[in-house]
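Can anyone check this?
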Amino acid sequence: MVNKRKKNLVSPDAGGSTSGSPKRKGVCKNYVHACPAYLETLGQTHCGWTFGAIAEIVDNSKDARATKLDILVEHHHSEMHGERIPMLALIDDGHGMSHDELLVMLSLGNKKFHQDDRERIGKYGVGFRTGAMKLGRDVIVLTQTTESRSVAFLSQTCNESNKDDDSEAELELPIVTYHRIASVMELDTDVQSEQTSEYNLDIMKRFSPFNEYFIGGKFALFGENGQGTQVYIWNLEKSGSDFSLEWQRSNNGDVNGDDIVIRSRRTRQRPGPLSQRVPLDYSLRAYLEVIFIDPRMEIFIQGSLVKSRLVAKSLDKTKIIDGNIPGKPVQLILGHCKQEWERMNSGIFLYWHGRLIEAYKRVGGMIQHPENSRGVIGVVDVTDVMRVGDRDMVNNTKQTFQECEAYAELEDWLGGMLDMYCRENSEGGGSSANSEDHMSDLIYLRVQNNLLQRNR
């Protein structure tokens, strides 16, 4: 499972030594133990931006081919707390997970998925843990497939409270799995004994608001023939005395009033800003409006549908530019957005496998002279460009790209195309073939010069 003990490949020699300690022969492998405190460490992966943690779970729903995802905050009574507590819920109708697939999701990394699956976002096998442990200290997962039903518990509270001296370096992961035949459920004794399942269920009842009746009621949300996954997170992260997240529901029918926001409402740092008014930095609704370049999953926040915004189709004065970086095809769509002009914003939206990685990235003249590009927005999918050899050069938080030659060349190219677009669309700007050829020459010289500087 998650932790493995030392394993002897060859039995140690039974012979003694003159010092009184036995001599060991053969190969003895050491395996890593996972200390419960490591769960808190995992949560620090997304310390820069809480929505990056939520996005990890949204990615899993999309990879599961879900057509609907509900994100909301519920309140349930907790005997441990002696009161009702908030619980972040994410519920999808994807294909669910088998017992083994659930173990893979909860384990510390897994092997890479088939690289030909261009739509798959999950790559590293760590996203769920880092995301969930950033959002709260405890999480329970209920998942249902056509043949199975499972419930798993990942808990800092349990692992800190339910340990003795002999197990302090072990991370406990209770899972109960049932074999499913239509609406009939039988304990799957191929993956656990009755005693193990009873013990695991007792742990969940002791350290969570969930008992067998509550769990059964939640599984009923799938319906008799339904599939999907439900994630419930509590003991939510706090900032001072308040929760880091703030949830709100509109009482007057205003859809935009149904939202989950970062309480601080701070915007992320970007070079050369025109404005600090970037709603997707602190509004989950605004972020999820543009998270996918081709949205195929309905997302609801606090019960209200998120209206997807296709960034490229919201532009006017649009120009489509094809390029090769480095030797790989890429297409950039540039245009002017009235809404962003009013907000005094500009920048490039970079997507990878159809998922937003960087928003409002400033390139070229946007950095030194942002007023010249006010309202200019670009959209580009860089899946092929940011694959170097057999590696996807995206940071494991999926909020930025790794520094590499391909990314540097991409930035140079984007900057050149942006500057050309601004020249052509400024008052008195020309768009003749000669001016385009001149700008292309300048861009080529800039890229070559930067490559030479990096190689020195």
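Reply from J.R.: I decoded it. The longest helix spans residues 433-455.
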